[in-house]
Specification:
- With 244 residues, the chain is α+β, with helices and mostly antiparallel strands.
- The chain has two domains: 1-19 and 225-244, no CATH class; 21-220, Galactose-binding domain-like (Jelly Rolls), CATH 2.60.120.260.
- The chain contains three helices and 13 strands, in the order H-E-E-E-E-E-E-E-E-E-E-E-H-E-E-H.
- The strands form three sheets. Strands 1, 2, 3, 5, 8 and 13 form a six-stranded antiparallel beta sheet that branches. A five-stranded antiparallel beta sheet has the order 4-12-6-7-9.
- A hairpin with a 6-residue loop joins strand 10 and strand 11.
- Helix 1 (2-18) crosses helix 3.
- The model is unreliable at 1-18 and 226-244 (pLDDT under 50).
Length: 244
């Protein structure tokens, strides 16, 4: 009976660890759901030799007020992140041009969008994190940008994060809609975006030539309960004794 309990505890512990993981899109097998702007202003495409180390990357050459790389179909990057203790998003970015007549810096941010909680005519509610202001002067080589969410069930925006979907009537700054929390967005991400369209800012239309690569999401599950760990340890100990 005790051996069976220890075995079940070990299985539970192993299954919990197995749920964590890392997904990397390096564009060697296509876009895997990632989309850049297309249309009258230019084109986005997989550049077979334009990525990190001469491999594939996803490049946009576009003229507009800003650009966004989005994904709403790859299950690793959208959905419910609340079961995870932590989530890390990262991307490699290279800037060949921002600006029409001379280089200009533009913001580059991660945005997690939820269409179901949109209110008041906004297209979505979202939370966003500004990585940096980027240009060809500072990001001429691929640079890794990364952010980790340590608590996916927090109702409060973590430091460095902003909200979108409504506005403060006093400051007119964007904010999450009433009744929508950081945890609400994380539990129902419909679309992820890497974007230069930072809320509360207005930009001139410019030429953009930017490449992303190694778009990555890493999830971490909560630590297993102490009894499961003890059972797992006991099972390993008993196995070592039997094989000694």
């Amino acid at each position: 009976m005790n051996s069976r309990i220890m075995f079940l505890g070990a299985v539970a512990c192993t299954a919990m660890i197995a749920n964590a993981g890392t997904t990397v899109v390096d564009f060697e097998n296509g876009t895997e759901g990632w989309e850049g702007p297309q249309g009258f202003g230019g084109v986005s495409y997989v550049d077979p030799t334009g990525g990190v180390g001469g491999g594939a990357g996803y490049r946009t050459q576009f003229h507009d007020f800003g650009i966004a790389f989005t994904n709403s179909t790859n299950a690793a990057f959208v959905g419910d992140f609340s079961p995870y203790q932590g989530v890390t998003f990262s991307v490699d970015l290279k800037v060949d041009q921002i600006g029409t007549f001379f280089p200009v810096p533009r913001p580059f941010m991660l945005e997690l969008r939820d269409f179901d909680t949109a209110q008041g005519g906004y297209p979505w509610s979202s939370v966003f994190y500004l990585f940096d202001w980027v240009s060809q002067d500072t990001y001429a080589d691929f640079t890794t940008l990364s952010v980790t969410i340590d608590n996916t069930t927090s109702p409060v925006l973590p430091s460095g994060w902003g909200g979108y979907g409504s506005y403060d009537p006093n400051t007119f700054e964007t904010m999450l809609p009433d009744g929508v929390t950081f945890a609400d967005i994380l539990s129902g991400v419909d679309e992820i975006a890497f974007s230069t369209l930072l809320p509360d800012y207005f930009f001139t239309d410019d030429d953009y030539d930017m490449t992303i690569d190694n778009v990555t999401v890493t999830t971490v599950v909560p630590a297993p309960a102490a009894p499961a760990l003890l059972a797992f340890g006991g099972l390993l100990a008993s196995r070592r004794r039997r094989t000694a």
